[in-house]
Specification:
The complex is a heterodimer of chains A (about 800) and B (about 80). By secondary structure, chain A is mainly alpha-helical. Chain A contains 33 helices and 11 strands. The longest helix of chain A is centred in the last third of the chain and has 34 residues. The chains are: A mainly alpha (about 800), B alpha+beta (about 80). Chain A: It is found in: Cytoplasm; Nucleus.
Chain lengths: ~800, ~80
């Protein structure tokens, strides 16, 4: 309403304070009739004004132009205060003037035309008069007629505007500005006209169906005559698209112009029809082209960054000028053209590289972008899985890399874990894919990874491994357990672990009992008590042995107080079932050692009847005191090494044959023992002729000049050959155990089913057996069971087996 | 060369002295435990009868408990007496 006053440079304002002023001046001079009349009018005007304000509040402008035309009024209202007084007289004049129908219409028409042409209103025509005219026409003539007249008037004006556009030859931007100006102007005038014809809007329009409000009528006419004109529509939409394309190309454009025009289109309700489709098509084309071009030109991380930038830009575009309803389609369009179309190429080209180089930031981006497209994460996940499989296989499969395999596996697992938690939101499916992939590739190579993991643990648990604190070791063991979990052939691990554990225990090499126990409890937790019972038995044996040795020493003291024993003996007594099998071997030992051994045997058997003791010389070790000319030394050696060295107490030179006959040590073991004494780091003996390997006829001479910085010297056994042999033995034992397990499983199934076809039996076996087996092996076992009459082939159908009870 | 042994850590394994490889009752090797036990060795010892037959202690005890009248060795049907 305030805008109306402004519009025709008006005239009258009634603020409360001023009315009061007038009142007071009236009261001062009550005698003047003219004044009292004026007063009446004033009051009336005030009343009407308040009424108008009321109406304004409830006015129903279905679509308010958002251009802010309305908001300007209040501020300026004070500026027109001065004119207030001059109006009073005019009004008197007009009440009488406008009472005739045609005159009223002429008045209104004049006002409307003035508004349309942005002219000032005639000085003597106030808004109040105009209201009155409208009222007159409504009451004295039909409101429909008035509405139709107004419509005609508006239509004529709008039609006249069209000329400008059709003839306009300016460039697009200028044209757009023109349209925009026309539009803002239209909004502006329609609002003012609407205010004048408020009574029409409130009465006739509301009460009559199918008649739109004056504002809506304006919009409709505008649409009909201007924008539905093909030339205007096309130029306008093309211009908008061009501006947006310019902006996408990196130029700055007049966003407010675009915004205003797009609002215009939405107000006219043709946004979706004329603009949105074209816009989306243009977007699709642009990004389809851009996607294809950039996929060629840029590497994947750059491309991804670009896509993200584009998405941000489009989002901004929606915030700034596009209609919010376009958002979903627009973003979908960008995602489709830039990501979905290229998802295969993107991952094939870039994922391996990103993972290899551990580029977490780019991977996070990749994840967030792929989470936008349908099925994107599934695809990413499967590619991730495939990457782990191929990369993991290269770690596992190459025998030359066996030495570093476990460490690499640990590092690889760490890296992948990090990526999953940092970049892939720790999403369940990725965690699962990671696990699945690890399990898959680690079992690509049978048995070896299990063996190497056991060896790796051995290396970490061995004494002298000072690189890690207890906490670090514990964490490391936890990580190893994760790898262990993936392995199918856990029995292979157990066999090698047991072998290494036995060495650690018997040679006293274990770094820390706590660490051993913690590893054991981890294994127990993972595989159940059955898996570790034998390992625990080994620890128990070690403790029992300690007790027995205590008792033995007390016994010795009681028995022979007078005879002092020359050496200290301690024995580890092993229960056969727990420990790995050892080769039994008889060797010649000095008589005092043999005697001592017998005393102990007697003592032990006295305590435990019904048992037999078997000495295992291969596992024994000694500490020797040796007096060299260069000073005394203490040598830590194996029993065999000790036996050989003891020979040199009597003579300085021995040939290989002599040593063999005197010690009765098995040939290959003896050669290895001699090699360690004469060709190792600490050479207590000298070999003649000098060479690396021990050959027939070699002579060994006591090394008088032996010297070493250390007092205590450990002479390592040479192990190379032993390990490969031992390894084979261990593996063979594992395979034997597996045969029993296969037999047991077959019999279990047969007992339950009685009759079963071959294929079903095989598949059930695969389910039951926890280690990898080949069908050929299973067939062999089935044959063997048939031979042993556990089952038979069905006479009619050779592919079916019957259980034989 | 003067060398003396200061200390010696020997290793010995023990096994049962039995007249058979397997227990006559449970048919498990004596090296292993009876079918009710998990671990061989001290947890599942062997016992000998005066008839010189031996069994896992758990196996023979179960057998003897199931005998109503006379307690006989399951192998030779002689009266079962533990060897001292």
């Amino acid at each position: 309403m305030s805008s109306v006053r402004l519009g025709y440079g008006s005239d009258r304002l009634v603020s409360n304070s001023q009315t009061k002023k007038r009142h007071s001046s009236d009261e001062e001079n009550p005698s003047s009739p003219l004044q009292s009349r004026n007063k009446k009018i004033c009051l009336e005007a005030q009343k009407e004004d308040i009424e108008n304000m009321d109406r304004q509040k409830h006015a129903n402008f279905s679509t308010m132009a958002p251009n802010g035309v309305r908001s300007m009024g209040l501020g300026k209202s004070k500026g027109s205060e001065k004119k207030v007084l001059s109006i009073k007289n005019l009004k008197v004049h007009q009440v009488a003037a406008v009472d005739h129908v045609s005159e009223s219409w002429a008045c209104l028409k004049e006002a409307v035309v003035a508004i349309q042409e942005s002219r000032k209103l005639r000085e003597n025509l106030t808004q109040e008069d105009l209201y009155r005219c409208v009222d007159n026409l409504i009451t004295q003539r039909s409101p429909a007629q008035l509405y139709a007249d107004l419509r005609d008037l508006t239509e004529t004006h709008i039609k006249s505007q069209l000329e400008n556009f059709i003839n306009s030859s300016g460039d697009r931007l200028i044209f757009l500005r023109q349209v925009n100006d026309c539009w803002t102007h239209h909004c502006h005038q329609m609002k003012m006209v609407g205010n004048i014809f408020l009574a029409l809007d409130r009465g006739y329009v509301l009460q009559t169906a199918h008649v739109s409000s004056i504002w809506d009528m304006g919009l409709e006419l505008f649409r009909q005559h201007i924008l539905e004109e093909v030339i205007v529509e096309n130029r306008c939409v093309d211009g908008l698209l061009m501006m947006i394309e310019q902006e996408r190309g990196g130029e700055t454009i007049d966003r407010s112009l675009v915004k205003s025009l797009l609002r215009m289109l939405s107000s006219l309700q043709i946004y979706h029809k004329v603009f949105e489709n074209k816009f989306l098509m243009a977007t699709e084309q642009l990004y389809s082209r851009e996607g294809q071009r950039l996929m060629q030109e840029r590497d994947v991380p750059q491309y991804l960054q670009h896509v993200e930038k584009r998405l941000n830009e489009e989002n901004n575009r929606i915030l700034h000028y596009l209609d919010p309803s376009t958002k979903r389609q627009l973003i979908y369009c960008v995602e489709k053209q830039m990501l979905n179309e290229h998802k295969t190429a993107l991952l094939q080209k870039g994922l391996d590289q990103l993972l290899d180089q551990n580029r977490r930031k780019d991977l996070s981006l990749l994840y967030s972008l792929f989470s936008r497209i349908k099925g994107g994460l599934d695809y990413l996940c499967s590619q991730f899985n495939a990457y782990i499989k191929t990369h993991g296989k290269t770690i596992v499969i190459n025998p030359e890399k066996d030495r570093v395999m476990v460490q690499e596996l640990l590092d690889f697992k760490d890296k992948m874990d990090g990526i999953v938690s940092d970049c892939f939101c720790n999403s369940d499916r990725f965690v699962l894919a990671l696990k699945e992939a690890f399990e898959h590739f680690i079992n690509q190579r049978l048995n070896k990874p299990a063996e190497l993991i056991a060896k790796f643990v051995d290396g970490k648990l061995k004494a002298g491994n000072k690189e890690a604190t207890e906490d670090e070791l514990e964490r490391l063991l936890d990580k190893i357990m994760v790898l262990f979990r993936f392995i199918h052939g856990k029995d292979v691990f157990e066999a090698f672990y047991k072998k290494d554990l036995s060495k650690r225990l018997l040679l006293g090499k274990s770094a820390s009992v706590d660490a051993e126990k913690s590893m054991l409890s981890k294994l127990k937790q993972e595989c159940g008590p059955g898996f570790t019972s034998k390992l625990e038995g080994m620890f128990k044996d070690m403790e029992l042995s300690k007790d027995i040795m205590l008792a033995f020493k007390q016994n010795l003291q009681n028995m022979s107080k007078n005879s002092t024993l020359p050496l200290e003996l301690s024995v580890n007594i092993l229960t056969m079932g727990y420990w790995p099998n050892y080769q039994i071997m008889e060797v010649e030992m000095p008589s005092d050692m043999v005697q001592y051994q017998q005393i102990f045997t007697k003592f032990y058997l006295g305590k435990h009847s019904g048992r037999k003791l078997q000495w295992q010389p291969t596992l024994g070790h000694c500490v020797l005191k040796a007096a060299f000319p260069n000073g005394p030394k203490e040598l830590q050696v194996s029993l065999f090494q000790a036996l050989v060295l003891l020979l040199f107490n009597t003579t300085d030179v021995f040939s290989l044959d002599e040593i063999t006959s005197r010690t009765n040590i098995e040939d290959t073991l003896l050669r290895r023992t001699l090699q360690s004494l004469a060709c190792g780091k600490a050479r207590v003996l000298i070999k003649n002729p000098k060479s690396k390997d021990v050959n027939d006829g070699d002579k060994f001479i006591y090394n008088k000049d032996f010297s070493n910085q250390l007092f205590r010297i450990k002479i390592n056994q040479i192990q190379m050959k032993e390990t490969s042999e031992e390894q084979q033995q261990t593996e063979e034992r594992v395979f034997q155990d597996r045969q029993y397990q296969i037999d047991a499983a077959i019999v279990r199934i047969m007992k339950m089913r009685k009759i079963i076809p071959h294929n079903l039996l095989i598949s059930e076996l695969f389910d039951q057996l926890k280690f990898p087996v080949k069908p050929a092996d299973l067939k062999k076992r089935i044959e063997s069971l048939i031979d042993r009459d556990y089952m038979e082939r069905d006479k009619d159908n050779p592919n079916t087996y019957n259980y034989v009870a | 060369m003067k060398i003396k042994i200061k200390s010696w850590t020997g290793v010995a394994t023990w096994r049962w002295i039995a007249n058979d490889d397997n227990c006559g009752i449970c048919r498990m090797p004596f090296e292993n435990c009876c079918s009710d036990c998990k671990l061989p060795g001290d947890d599942c010892p062997l016992v000998w009868g005066q008839c010189s037959h031996c069994f896992h202690i758990h196996c023979i005890m179960k057998w003897l408990q199931s005998q109503q009248l006379q307690q006989q060795c399951p192998m030779c049907r002689q009266e079962w007496k533990f060897k001292e």
